Amino acid sequence: MDLVQWDVPKKRRNGSSYYEQSGVHATEDRKNTVCGTDITTKRNPSIFRTITWAAVVTCYNCAYRLALQGKWPLDRVPGKNGTTHPAPVAQ
Fold first, then answer.
1. Which residues contact 28 (CB under 8 A, 6 or more apart)?
2. Strand residue runs (E) in 12-51
3. Residue 76: its pLDDT value, please?
4. Residue 87: pLDDT over 60
5. Residue spans of beta strands (DSSP E) within the chain
6. What are the backbone angles phi and psi of residue 75, rounded to the nearest 5°?
7. Maximum distance among all alpha carbons in the chain?
8. Helical spans, DSSP H, in 1-91
9. Is-contact 40 61, C-beta < 8 A?
10. Nearest CA to 29 among 54, 2, 9, 68?
11. How does pLDDT run across 38-84, given as a tens digit for each residue?
12. Are 66 and 25 in contact (CB under 8 A)?
């Protein structure tokens, strides 16, 4: 599985700007994340491959969609208790 992060623009109170890294998302085609984000439109995307991807992914939606496909244990989705990520939308 390939993983991806990109730079997210942020603003300080004084008006200056800086960049922060996004969460770690999963991608199967290196064009879109599993959660549906178009990687090609992001600033400075970093794509890397790992065999321990399940321990690294921090995007709730990527993990949840992989769990629905049977590629991730549903009880190990990050933020499942709702403290860091919203609950999934019923389809």
1. 1, 2, 34
2. 17-21, 25-27, 43-49
3. 65
4. no
5. 2-11, 17-21, 25-27, 43-49
6. -80, -5
7. 47
8. 60-68
9. no
10. 2
11. 998 888 889 999 887 777 888 888 888 888 888 876 666 666 544 44
12. no
Residue 50, SS3? coil
Unique residue bearing structure tokens 């496909």: 69
Among 63, 68, 66, residue whose Cα is nearest residue 80: 63
Which of these, 21, 22, 27, lies nearest to 65 by C-alpha position? 27
Average pLDDT over residues 10-19: 93
Q: Which residue from 9, 2, 3, 4 is spatially nearest to 45, judged by alpha carbons?
A: 4
- How many residues in total does the chain contain? 91
Distance CA 24, CA 57 (A): 5
Burial of 13 from C-beta contacts in 10 A (0-12 / 13-18 / 19+)? exposed
Letter for the amino acid at 43? R
